Amino acid sequence: MPEPPFDVPRLPAGDAFVLRPWTLADLPLVEEASADPYIPLITTVPAAYSHAAVERQWDRATRGTGWPFVVERVTDGRAVGTVGLWSAPHGRASAGYWIAPSARGGGVALAGLRAVTGWAFAALGLARVELYVEPWNTASRRTAESAGFRVEGLLRSWQEVGGVRRDMLMYARLPADSEG
C-alpha cells in the first residue's frame, strides 16, 4: 500500500536560509547542478536538465517516499541547493543534500542539514537519520559531523557512482546526539 502524500513545509534554516518545496522557478538551480561534474553522478539530477527534475521532486512527496526541500537564501530569495529526507522503515530516514557550485562554502549545506534533521526528530518523531558520504568527500564529511552526525562505518562497494561501485561512509544522527 503506498504511503499518503507528504507535506513539504517551509522551515527556517538558521538566519540566512529557508527550506521550502520545489517550484518550476527553481529550474536555474537544476541547470547549474546539471553542469557540475559530480552532482549528476551521485543524485537524480540529469546531466541535461529539464523541468522533469522538478517534477520528480514533487512526485517523491506525492508518492510518500520523501521530503525534498530547496534551500533558499533569505537575502535575495535565490535557490542555492537542496536537502531532503527519504523515508525508510522503522522510524528511520536517509538524508541527502547538494549545493550549487556558485553557493558552496557559505554554510548552505550545514544550515539545511541541521534544519531538516531537527524537523525530522521534532515533527516526524524519527528515531534515526542516516546519510552516506564517499570517503574522499571532505567537505560533505565535515558538514555531516558539524551537524551532529557520527560516522558508523565503511560500507564497501555500497553504491554505483558513474558506473563504478564505490565505498560509502555511513553516518547517523539520533535525537539525543548533539550538533558538532
Describe the model.
There is one protein chain. By secondary structure, the chain is an alpha+beta fold. The chain has a domain at 11-126: Gcn5-related N-acetyltransferase (GNAT) (Aminopeptidase). 27% of the residues lie in helices and 34% in strands. The chain has 5 helices and 8 strands; from the N terminus they run ββαααβββαβαββ. It has helices spanning 27-35, 39-42, 52-63, 108-122, 138-146; strands spanning 11-13, 17-20, 66-73, 79-88, 92-99, 128-133, 150-161, 164-173. Strands 1-2-3-4-5-6-8-7 form an 8-stranded mixed β-sheet, with helices on both faces. Strand 1 (11-13) and strand 2 form a beta hairpin. The N and C termini lie far apart (39 Å). Residues 17-175 form the N-acetyltransferase domain.
Question: Which key phrases capture this entry?
Answer:
single chain; 180 residues; alpha+beta; Aminopeptidase; 5 helices; 8 strands; 34% strand; Acyl_CoA_acyltransferase; GNAT_dom; Ribosomal_N-acetyltransferase; GNAT family N-acetyltransferase
